[in-house]
Amino acid sequence: MAVGDLVLVTGASGFVGKWTVVDCLRAGYRVRGTVRGMAKADAVRAAVVKVLGDDALARLEFAECDLLDDKGWAQAMAGVTAVVHVAAQILREEPKDHSVVVRPALEGTERVLRFAKAAGITRVVMTSSIATVGYGHGHTSGKRVYTEEHFTNLDKMQFTWAYCVGKTKAEQFAWAYAKEHGLGLTTVHPGAILGPALDDDGSISLGLVSGLLQGKTPAMPSNGFSIVDVRDVAALHVAALQHPETAGHRYLATAQYTRFPEVADILRAAYPQYEITRKEVPDWIIKLMARFGGPSRQIINDIGNEKHFDGAKGEALLGRKFVSSKDAILATAESLFALGLISPQMRQETVKA
Predict the structure, then answer these.
(1) Distances (CA, A) of 153 to 97, 101, 189, 266, 310
(2) Please, are residues 72 and 64 in contact by the beta-carbon 8 Å criterion?
(3) CATH class of 6-349
(4) What digits encode the pLDDT tens for the residues 10-44?
(5) Are 94 and 297 within 8 A, CB to CB?
(6) CA–CA separation, 133 vs 204, rounded Å?
(7) Edge-to-edge strands, sheet with 250-253
(8) Is there a contact between 324 and 232 (Cβ–Cβ < 8 Å)?
(9) pTM given for the model
C-alpha cells in the first residue's frame, strides 16, 4: 500500500476503531470510517483532532453502514485499496440469545468480505481475538502457552459464550472465503484491551479498571488474562497493511498474563488513596454461577488454569515490545481521570474516615 491510499475502517467509532483510524491517518493513508449512524462521526473526528490535530480531518470521511444490512456497503467500498474490519458487537453481560452477538460477527464479516470482493479489493486486515485461539483444547488446569498455530475448537468446549462463538465462526468463514477468492487476509488477535480512552465511549474492558477504582467491584475472580494496550492493537493493524507479506498470517496482540488481583495491586500501589478490594471470589462459586449464564459464563473457561498467549510474532512485526500490561493498566486509569469519568472527589469518597 502507498501513502494516500484509501483505507476503509469498519466500526470506526469503537475503542479500537478510533485508535485504528488515528494510526491509519498517522501512517499517511486516507480513511473512510463506517459508523452505524452519522451522529457517531463527530466523536471520531474529535478523537482524531485530539491526537493528530485539525489537519488530519482533510483525509477522513465516513459512510453509514450496518453489519446486518447490505445498504451502503457498495458505496463504502468505492475507491478503497484495503479494508480494516474492526466492527463487532460486544456486550457486558452474556446474552440469553447468542445470535445478538454471533450474527453481527459472522454475517457482518460475510457482508464486508463479499462487498470488498465485488469492489475488486484484495487486501483485508481483520480484528479477531484470543477467543479464537485458546479454547476447546482440554486445558482445565496448569499453565499452557498458545500461539498463532492454535485454533479454538467450539465442539470441544464445555461452556461456550457468545463472543467466542461469534469470533471463532467469523474467523473460520474469513479464512475459507479468502482461500476461495484469493483474498489477502491478515487477522489480529487481541487479549483484554486496555490503554487510554479517547472519549467517554470506551471499551467494556475499561470497566475492569474503573470498577476497582470506584469500589464497584466488591470481590475479584482469581483468574488472569493477557492484556494488550489499544495503541498496540491499532499499530498492529497498520503494520499488517504496510507489510504485504503478512497476508495469510495470524498475529497475537498480547502482552503479559496478569491475574485480576495483580491488576488491583498495580492500581493500589499507584493510587493509595483508593480503597480497592482485596477479596477474591472462590473458583467453585464462579463455576456454579456459570451454569446459569451471566458474566461468569464469559470467564469460566479460564478458571483454574493459566492461558498464556505468545505475542512474539506480533512484536516482531512492530519491531518492538508491546506496552507492558502494567503500563496499559495505568494508562487506562489516567485517561479515565483525564476524561472526568473518575473524579478526584470520587477518590476521596472511597477512603474510609
Answers:
(1) 21, 18, 16, 34, 19
(2) yes
(3) alpha beta
(4) 999 999 999 999 999 999 999 999 999 999 999 99
(5) yes
(6) 21
(7) 60-64, 30-35, 6-10, 82-85, 123-127, 184-190, 250-253
(8) no
(9) 0.93
